[in-house]
Amino acid sequence: MPYPHEFLDISPDLADNEKFLRQSFENTTDIVFREFYLGEIRCLAVWVDGLVNNRVSHDLFRALMLDVKPERLKQVPAGERLDYVNKHHLPFYATLRVVDMIELRRWVLMHKLILLMDGSPIGLVLDAEATPMRSITEPTLESVVYGPRDAFVESLRINTALIRARLGDVKLKSENFILGRRSNTLVTLMYVEDLARPDIIEEIRSRMKRIDTDAIWDVYQIKESIHDQRWGLFPLMKQTERPDKVVADLLEGRFAILVDGSPQALTAPSLLVEFFQSAEDYYENPIVTAGLRILRYLSLFIACTGLGFYVAVATFHQEMLPIPLIFSVAGARETVPFPAFFEALLLMVVFELLVEAGIRLPRVVGGAVNIVGALIIGQAAVQAGLVSPILVIVIAATAISNFAVSVNYQISNILRLLRLLFLFFAALLGLYGMSLVLLALLIHLAGLKSFGVPYLAPLAPASLIPGETKDVFYRLPKWHIKSRPHFIAGSDLIRDNTQPPSAELGPGSATDADEKGAKK
Amino acid sequence: MGDGKISQRQLAYLFFTILIGTMFFYNPQIVVGTTGQDGWIAYLIATFWGILVALVIVALGRRFPDKTLTAYIPHIIGKPLGKILSLLYTIWFLFIGGGLLAQFANFMNTTIMASTPKMVFIITFVAIAFYAVHSGLEVVVRVNELLLWVIVIATIMVVILPWELMDLRRMLPVGETSIGRLLATSLIAGSWRGEVMMVGMFLPALITLKNTARNLIETVFLVGVMLIAVEISLVTVFGAHLVGDIEVPVFALARMISTARVLDRLEALVLIIWVLATFVKICAFLYCTAQATADTMGFQESRFLLLPISLLFTAIAYNQTVDPAKFIDFLMLTWPGYGLLSFQLVIPLLLLVIASLRGKGEKRL
Questions:
Q1: CATH code that applies to domain B8-354
Q2: Quick one: which H or E segment has residue B253?
Q3: pTM
Q4: What is the ipTM of this complex?
């Protein structure tokens, strides 16, 4: 129980207890009070309708009413009867004995079934939870071609199970927090004990305990309360809907936070480069991955600066372009009545409107938006002389780059804002203005820390320890990345000791292999 | 400021940028102008001056591991004289930094954005450097760790891409210039290299002093190699006589690039180098000036000094004459005396001698 609360002993007299509960749940139609007798002993079960498995509760009453022999029960002293039932007759895998009425009442609200018996000053909490939920589906935001296809759902238990199923390590610990004075939401903190740094785990515990709010139902609400910065644009904790990503993060010494009701997990400490690593990078040939990563960083650059570049060149630095291109740019812009900045801003805003509309619109009319976007914006705006065709190409290129880089949707939204910033300063001071923005951005990022870990690591501060940069602009094979990231993981730094695969290690050439080993 | 510790590698990177930064903009013109195609020999000698400065300043720093240059000067030569020398160093940082800013603004104003007033460049640049230094020294060195690669790659591109125009015969004859002239020129080139003296202000921020001298010597040497590469590229493309007459030869070199009909007129590369390197240097000078002021005045904290010092930088940069002829004159006649022959090499060397004679500081070398 996280909050200080008053304590109320459970009375041996069931009538008192029932009165208390009925008063608490007055005018509450979704609470079920089920009264029954074991012989002449009066019993009471209470639960929230719909949150308890019908099948299980049916089994419960069957077991109690048919199996319990009233004569045998009468021989047990009155105060110990419920304990006796608990030990001998409850076909439940998890039960909890409670002596506090307030706590018992809260368990009802936390999806449990409670049991009281006349004469026994205790209550039993039975886990028969069956919260309504959807089944496990494919990830929608972080979809991949190869690799696991399951995503988190809204049930905390299922989510922890998805993680535990992949990581059967005795050192994988999970701690529960009950957050939200009114919502009583279960929040789980997971970490691998000998990989996570103890000071970071201590810090997250204390930050979690600082949360004092009425209700929580999504992991983002926790993120906002325990973020390293009050007002920050960049996410210092990573949200993901993929269990495999969480497992990989746990194995690098990070911790994960799961919230009941949220289909996403939160992991930290986070680095900026992580937001450009797709899960798929690890299920694909490293050479191909290197190409894709470079493409991703290139698209990051285009997404941020492409539009600003167009405006800067068209406004300030025409001399930078090759002469034939200058003619075509100037020719295309001849009919445009606006300055390049306004032209770019106009088309950018319209494009962003299209993106937002595409998300909000009901799926059945989504096609209409595509037609409007392609025809009206693309074709008609150019024909009407509002924008130049080259700008349409630039906008399209930045937009496509933005989607290509959005391994993580949070970063992709930030890029949209940064693009506007670059555009504005390009219009103000040309390429010089853009480099000012870039410098300011770098300074800001270099000063950020996520739970004490520099945000730009392992690039700045660059690490001399081999292995730290093997997974940034490219990814080396699994057997090659021998160590965990030193700035995150606490101990057990050796991650992989596999011999590099080699045809010579086959059984046919054992002598060769031995010789090689001897040389080493 | 001062609260963040930096690593050996970060210090080496920082000084790589500081040394290479603005060096090859005005420097080749003077060096090649006076020594012709033998400029690379002058650069080689200058590298040894730089190494000497690094050795002296690290040896001094090792005697006072937890103090900056301006903080330990009074310990060596006594309080009244020491405070005056510290103040002189403070002013040196202030004026060189301000001058750097003036050059930068002037260059931007004359080459790419003629209709934008110089004040715009000065104010925006000081503001961004203020933001960086105010965020802490560790932020500056981290940013530099990223920028360094951009600067190095851009430099290599500028040096290598005009390969079609290069004619190695322009390097001949070798050894035409007299030794005395080479030495005199190396003092000019060496005064840029002597800026490694600033390391005296950064040593207390290091996590460990181990290997500092070796790392700095490597840095100075690598910078020398890169500069010689730039010089050779310039001379082989333009010929020694022409290089001496162009105001910013590297800029002209980048204009000559025309590879595969795609990489055309890459002045932007030089601009990138100039903006990024000047940024790092201004940050370093801002840091040094603030730290030196705090040391001289006896303040524990120097962060609050950043704002007034930034304003001073702005004022100095705005009021400095940047008439190219006068500026080249300054670089040729005044700069060696102001740099290598006093503040960079001779004074620290004297300080080291006095410190070892009077037995000041910890006696470990």
A1: 1.20.1740.10
A2: helix B249-256
A3: 0.88
A4: 0.90
